[in-house]
Amino acid sequence: MTTFLRLGVTEDDQALADAVATFAQAELAPRAQALDEQELSATCHVPQLAELGVMGLNLPEHLGGPGVTPTAMLLALVEISKACAATSSMVGAHYLGTDAVLIGGNAAQQQAWLPRAASGEWLAGFALTEPRGGSHPADLRTRAVREGGHYRLDGVKHFISNAAEAKFLVVFARTDPDAGARGVSAFVVDTKTPGISFSSHEKLMGIRGAHAFEVSFDGVMVPEDCRLGEEGTGFKTAMKVLDNSRLDVAATSLGIAEAALAAAVQWANDRQIGGEALASKQGIQWMLADMKLRLEAAWGLTLQATALRTAGQVFTRQSAMAKLYASEMVGFVTDAALQIHGGYGFTREMPLERYARDARILRIYEGSSEIQRTIIARAVLG
What we know:
By secondary structure, this protein is α+β, with helices and mostly antiparallel strands. It is 51% helix and 15% strand. The protein is built from ten helices and ten strands. Helix 1 runs parallel beside helix 3 (70-83), helix 3 (70-83) crosses helix 6 and helix 8 (316-341) crosses helix 10 (369-381). The model has no long low-confidence stretch (mean pLDDT 96).
């Protein structure tokens, strides 16, 4: 639990984070290893998370959310990630879907879908990635063809978190095959609609409790009033959602890194080598210093981007920088923490190897590190 207020964090923000931290350490942390080893779904935690208001942290009060600041939401995700990164990833995927309705939908659509998502009754998902279009979402092959008052959806989505467990997915499909990114539209789709099928959940290296699926759409008829915004605006909605979600990924990175560093510090203080604490060795001290330095730098970038989001300013470049740096930072920190534990860190009796596995995906999803560098470079070049 954080014992001081970081720059830009209010006492109300911290109070929420502390409440989530208490819950996460009491309820999530003890089950994290079982979720990983048995590949149990982190959705088992949704009712308790909903009671805390976590499932609607990204939503305003009139749509069922608690109306907290983006900073409070960030801190809450950090605390969840310290305890169980798979749970944080499941919640983040839920935010992707609900953010898409909040950003791209009209008032009627928001009222229809979001309050019950905020309450935890309904789980959301975000169906953008395809087998041939991961980090290039403008190259979608899923088609949406208007037929009377409906659209017919045909295509396949891949690595869709929450999909088979969700009540609804926001699906991105091409309505104009010749218009590039401007030919992409977004639809909110009930997962019980005929023609939708799901694979078994993917066998993942890490975050095994955050289930991801392949989703097939075969002649799925979606009412016209389930289209979010005008035709051709879906790609713009997706990019705005991803600006937000990259901060969620940064939060997950911060949480895992905080847990790994804390474990390394405790081990270095407790472990005796030649009658002296491991922490007395200069080489270990320098490793810990580098871990802390990179972690604090990631906090700075993430809070800067969050402050811009809170102020209603454009933060695309800053969110890309935060996501890139934080996700690469956590790879360094978890590896160093495992190294400090020596052979013990390589066993499954300790959480170090899980931290390292969970952290690896963060450089890939919500836009790979290479894509983030492209976004940053374009901004630098004007």
